[in-house]
Amino acid sequence: MTSSAAALPDDAAWPAPAAAGPLDATVEVPGSKSLTNRYLVLASLADGPGRLRGALRSRDTVLMAEALAALGVAIEPADDVPSDWRVTPGTLRGPATIDCGLAGTVMRFLPAVAALADGPVRFDGDEGARARPMAPVLTALAALGVGIPEQAPGGYLPFTVAGRGAVRGGQVDVDASGSSQFVSGLLLAAARFEQGLTLRHTGATLPSLPHIDMTVQVLREAGVEVDDSRPTIWRVEPGPIRARDVRVEPDLSNAGPFLAAALVVGGTVRVPGWPASTTQPGALLAGILERMGATTTLDGDVLAVSGTGVVHGLDLDLHEAGELAPTIAALAALADSPTRLRGIAHLRGHETDRLAALATEITRLGGQAEQTSDGLVITPRPLHAGTVRTYHDHRMATAGAILGLRVPGLRVEDVATTAKTLPDFVGMWHGMLG
Ligand SMILES: O=C(O)C1=C[C@@H](OP(=O)(O)O)[C@@H](O)[C@H](O)C1
Ligand SMILES: C=C(OP(=O)(O)O)C(=O)O
């Protein structure tokens, strides 16, 4: 459990640096959280030992590796390249306990894996994790015959999955309007269910479809047959998951704050390793940043974003890429015209209620930001010095850093919360600024 960081004195907060002049930086961004944690799960369920190259090492991915290790999987640094992970599947074991931290991918991807273990698996996490929605996953597992002997009222952490070594599988309805991870978490393990799985989404909206496409793609790459030809219905056939040697793409969403800096400050920021094609929603950044005033070029695998220091507001439906919202909101607060962000009601169940957190913090700095039913309206105003509170949310911290580029005297509380997906954020940020 972590305690509230809101009580920290301001002088313990990180002074977000301003830029001395236009940027000219190349930023190497570590591996994707979403891909690393999917590959770890699939490697753990595979038919032999596998390897992850360029895997992200951060709080979320270490928690995933530790959780899978607690279930009996051997996950070790490779002898020749210690930054690679070697994964050797074993019989999945309970009893076990899993610390989810604040990681949506751990709490939503592992219950179906735990159902395949041969004993009970108890899940818990940070205080904030206990507020993140889980019920659709637990209800779906129960409908598939899995025992859930313990869960907090309403279907939250902590809960226990009564693993019995096998899951029947079959057909299930899931309302995934609260998170795409409810779908991904069931599909990832479904090839190991006796009857596979047919999953039908029943809600009115579905966020983060690229992340579901990512799940389908990594399953297919591992030899699993997936039918996604009908909108909002997925069929995973039972069968082996092939062991693989994979390279993880850089985390394009984590590239966001660095690329955004080029707009705010002017100059150019380059990110190498940008994939020619990808399911990561961060790929949408280039087009979004162009609408906000950037020039972008993809030269080989290097994405370059150039700006002039002038940022334009925009009207943007972000339902496919909600994890970009804090970065775009920070840019919007520094823009020359208002911004409306839509389609992101589900951000209320992210690391914190991100709509509330962004509106509150931008307003506290003198800006104008209001919540709507499914997003934010941000009207730029001159911002003043202050401390951005981060609510244990890595993307609130990186959003604060973006604001600090333009606002003297801005501090970011608990910047170490960036370790959730980017442990060296501060070093990388100073490195970019030169
Ligand atoms: O599957 C994944 O790896 C993710 C899915 C998305 O979740 P939501 O659909 O809950 O937004 C995204 O925001 C999160 O950062 C990562
Ligand atoms: C929503 C996010 O994380 P999680 O995987 O914990 O849901 C995020 O990284 O923006």
UniProtKB/TrEMBL annotation:
<feature type="active site" description="Proton acceptor">
    <location>
        <position position="323"/>
    </location>
</feature>
<comment type="pathway">
    <text>Metabolic intermediate biosynthesis; chorismate biosynthesis; chorismate from D-erythrose 4-phosphate and phosphoenolpyruvate: step 6/7.</text>
</comment>
<feature type="binding site">
    <location>
        <position position="33"/>
    </location>
    <ligand>
        <name>3-phosphoshikimate</name>
    </ligand>
</feature>
<keyword id="KW-0808">Transferase</keyword>
<dbReference type="Pfam" id="PF00275">
    <property type="entry name" value="EPSP_synthase"/>
</dbReference>
<feature type="binding site">
    <location>
        <position position="354"/>
    </location>
    <ligand>
        <name>phosphoenolpyruvate</name>
    </ligand>
</feature>
<dbReference type="GO" id="GO:0005737">
    <property type="term" value="C:cytoplasm"/>
</dbReference>
<dbReference type="GO" id="GO:0009073">
    <property type="term" value="P:aromatic amino acid family biosynthetic process"/>
</dbReference>
<feature type="binding site">
    <location>
        <position position="181"/>
    </location>
    <ligand>
        <name>phosphoenolpyruvate</name>
    </ligand>
</feature>
<feature type="binding site">
    <location>
        <position position="323"/>
    </location>
    <ligand>
        <name>3-phosphoshikimate</name>
    </ligand>
</feature>
<feature type="binding site">
    <location>
        <position position="181"/>
    </location>
    <ligand>
        <name>3-phosphoshikimate</name>
    </ligand>
</feature>
<dbReference type="GO" id="GO:0009423">
    <property type="term" value="P:chorismate biosynthetic process"/>
</dbReference>
<dbReference type="GO" id="GO:0003866">
    <property type="term" value="F:3-phosphoshikimate 1-carboxyvinyltransferase activity"/>
</dbReference>
<feature type="binding site">
    <location>
        <position position="208"/>
    </location>
    <ligand>
        <name>3-phosphoshikimate</name>
    </ligand>
</feature>
<keyword id="KW-0963">Cytoplasm</keyword>
<feature type="binding site">
    <location>
        <position position="34"/>
    </location>
    <ligand>
        <name>3-phosphoshikimate</name>
    </ligand>
</feature>
<dbReference type="InterPro" id="IPR023193">
    <property type="entry name" value="EPSP_synthase_CS"/>
</dbReference>
<protein>
    <recommendedName>
        <fullName>3-phosphoshikimate 1-carboxyvinyltransferase</fullName>
        <ecNumber>2.5.1.19</ecNumber>
    </recommendedName>
</protein>
<dbReference type="GO" id="GO:0008652">
    <property type="term" value="P:amino acid biosynthetic process"/>
</dbReference>
<keyword id="KW-0028">Amino-acid biosynthesis</keyword>
<feature type="binding site">
    <location>
        <position position="104"/>
    </location>
    <ligand>
        <name>phosphoenolpyruvate</name>
    </ligand>
</feature>
<dbReference type="InterPro" id="IPR006264">
    <property type="entry name" value="EPSP_synthase"/>
</dbReference>
<feature type="binding site">
    <location>
        <position position="38"/>
    </location>
    <ligand>
        <name>3-phosphoshikimate</name>
    </ligand>
</feature>
<feature type="binding site">
    <location>
        <position position="132"/>
    </location>
    <ligand>
        <name>phosphoenolpyruvate</name>
    </ligand>
</feature>
<feature type="binding site">
    <location>
        <position position="350"/>
    </location>
    <ligand>
        <name>3-phosphoshikimate</name>
    </ligand>
</feature>
<feature type="binding site">
    <location>
        <position position="179"/>
    </location>
    <ligand>
        <name>3-phosphoshikimate</name>
    </ligand>
</feature>
<feature type="binding site">
    <location>
        <position position="180"/>
    </location>
    <ligand>
        <name>3-phosphoshikimate</name>
    </ligand>
</feature>
<comment type="function">
    <text>Catalyzes the transfer of the enolpyruvyl moiety of phosphoenolpyruvate (PEP) to the 5-hydroxyl of shikimate-3-phosphate (S3P) to produce enolpyruvyl shikimate-3-phosphate and inorganic phosphate.</text>
</comment>
<comment type="subunit">
    <text>Monomer.</text>
</comment>
<keyword id="KW-0057">Aromatic amino acid biosynthesis</keyword>
<dbReference type="InterPro" id="IPR001986">
    <property type="entry name" value="Enolpyruvate_Tfrase_dom"/>
</dbReference>
<feature type="binding site">
    <location>
        <position position="420"/>
    </location>
    <ligand>
        <name>phosphoenolpyruvate</name>
    </ligand>
</feature>
<dbReference type="InterPro" id="IPR013792">
    <property type="entry name" value="RNA3'P_cycl/enolpyr_Trfase_a/b"/>
</dbReference>
<feature type="binding site">
    <location>
        <position position="33"/>
    </location>
    <ligand>
        <name>phosphoenolpyruvate</name>
    </ligand>
</feature>
<feature type="domain" description="Enolpyruvate transferase">
    <location>
        <begin position="20"/>
        <end position="427"/>
    </location>
</feature>
<feature type="binding site">
    <location>
        <position position="395"/>
    </location>
    <ligand>
        <name>phosphoenolpyruvate</name>
    </ligand>
</feature>
<comment type="similarity">
    <text>Belongs to the EPSP synthase family.</text>
</comment>
<dbReference type="InterPro" id="IPR036968">
    <property type="entry name" value="Enolpyruvate_Tfrase_sf"/>
</dbReference>
